[in-house]
């Protein structure tokens, strides 16, 4: 899938492969305070989650990645991440918009995700893209020696809204 971006060219969202995992891990360990392990990424590929790599195809560099699951007509974003060297360039927005497009194309009704209250960049990214806070999961994330709550956010997709309107009329 080609990705439109105001400044960068040759951007594409491609199915993640095992060969991408070393580049993904190099980003993951600096992007998150509690990074996933290589085993978790391998498991996501093995069980068939929807796993995507954001690449600049002319240089074959990996700029970010997206992992989603789809069940019972709902999408769940498990991991969305941009290389810290490329953050603040609207790539996270492009990746999230692509996830929303995928959901709409599959006629999914809504999307859920969890985010740390301390993760201001992610929180604003989601709020700017019509995600709403719908709950809190207590002590969800490891945080140093303790735990941190997760804010649960939800966005309804276009088709979901259309379907609901049709059902009511
Ligand atoms: C969250 C993340 C994906 C955002 O990607 P990004 O490419 O840096 O974000 P964008 O450039 O598209 O910015 C989108 C919005 O995020 C917010 N934002 C981005 N960086 C921010 C920062 N440092 N502080 C506060 N808000 C920030 C802004 O609201 C911005 O929109 P605006 O510029 O119109 O105000 C990226 O920071 C990241 O990969 N973080 C590490 C992994 C992570 O935490 N993932 C989310 C897990 S829930």
TL;DR?
This protein has 169 residues and is α+β, with helices and mostly antiparallel strands. The chain has five helices and seven strands; from the N terminus they run E-H-H-E-E-E-H-E-H-E-E-H.
Layout of secondary structure:
Layout: E1 11-15, H1 21-31, H2 38-46, E2 50-56, E3 61-71, E4 74-82, H3 91-105, E5 110-115, H4 120-128, E6 132-143, E7 146-156, H5 158-168
Parallel strand pairs: 4-5
Antiparallel strand pairs: 1-2, 2-3, 3-4, 5-7, 6-7
Coenzyme A binds at residues 31-32, 80-82, 87-93, 115, 119-122, 124-125, 128.
Report on this structure:
The chain has 169 residues and is α+β, with helices and mostly antiparallel strands. It has a single domain (11-168), classed as Aminopeptidase, CATH 3.40.630.30. It is built from five helices and seven strands. The chain has helices at residues 21-31, 38-46, 91-105, 120-128, 158-168; strands at 11-15, 50-56, 61-71, 74-82, 110-115, 132-143, 146-156. It has a seven-stranded mixed β-sheet with strand order 1-2-3-4-5-7-6, with helices on both faces. Strand 3 (61-71) and strand 4 (74-82) form a beta hairpin. The longest helix is centred in the middle third of the chain and has 15 residues, at 91-105. It is globular, with a radius of gyration of 16 Å. Residues 160-165 have low confidence and may be disordered. Residues 31-32, 80-82, 87-93, 115, 119-122, 124-125, 128 line the site of coenzyme A (COA). Residues 31-32, 80-82, 87-93, 115, 119-122, 124-125, 128 line the site of coenzyme A.
């Amino acid at each position: 899938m080609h990705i439109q971006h105001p400044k960068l060219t040759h951007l594409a969202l491609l199915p993640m492969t095992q060969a991408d995992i070393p580049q993904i891990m190099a980003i993951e360990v600096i992007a998150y305070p509690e990074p996933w392990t290589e085993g978790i990424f391998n498991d996501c590929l093995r069980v068939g989650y929807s796993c995507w790599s954001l690449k600049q195809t002319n240089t074959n560099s990996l700029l970010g990645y997206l992992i989603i699951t789809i069940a019972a007509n709902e999408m769940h974003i498990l991991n969305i991440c941009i290389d810290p060297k490329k953050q603040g360039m609207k790539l996270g927005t492009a990746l999230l918009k692509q996830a929303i497009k995928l959901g709409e194309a599959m006629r999914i009704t809504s999307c859920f995700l969890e985010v740390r209250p301390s993760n201001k960049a992610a929180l604003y990214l989601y709020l700017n893209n019509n995600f709403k806070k719908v709950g809190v999961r207590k002590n969800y994330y490891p945080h140093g020696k303790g735990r941190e709550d997760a804010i649960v956010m939800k966005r309804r997709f276009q088709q979901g809204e259309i379907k609901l309107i049709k059902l009511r009329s």
